[in-house]
Amino acid sequence: IFFDPNLRIKYPEGYLPKLAPIGNDIILTMDAIQMWLQNNQTNQFVFTPVANLIFTPLLLLGYPKYYYVITVATLASYLVISLLAILMSAEKRHAVIIFIAAISIFSYGVQFELERGQSHTIALMLMLLSIYIFHRHKEFRWFAYILFSISIQLKFYPALFVILFVDN
Prior knowledge:
Layout: H1 24-39, H2 49-55, H3 65-88, H4 94-104, H5 108-116, H6 120-136, H7 141-154
C-alpha cells in the first residue's frame, strides 16, 4: 500500500483526504534541508542542526527512495517500541501488549504518519530506548543521554519525559 507506483495510498472513499504525492512531510523536510545546504537560506520550516545532519544523507537517494527509507525506519521503530513495551512490562501483561501493538499498527495515527512520512515514531522510539537503557543498563547511561538528546532534536515533545531520567 505504501510503495504504490503512482505514489498514492488507496483508501476507501472519504476515509482520509487525498494527498499526492505520498510523503508530503518528508518532502517538505528534504526541500528545507536542500535549500539550507545549497543557498544557505531557510524557508518557513526550520529544523535543528542535528535533524538536518540526520536527514541530509537522504538527499542522495532522491524522492521517492527517501520516503521508502523513512517508512521502513518508522515501521522498524514501531517494532522496537513494541519490544521495549514487552521488556519494560510485568510478565502477566505481555499478551495485552502484543495485542495492542498488533491492532494499533492499523490505526489512523500510524497510517497518517506513514502516509505523510513523519518522524514522530522514530523520535518516540529513541526516547523510550534511552529510558530503557538509563534504568536497565546503568553503565551505558551516557548513550541513553545521547539518544534522548537526538529524540528531542527530531521532535521537541520527548523533552516532556525528562522526569523519567530521575534515579533514586
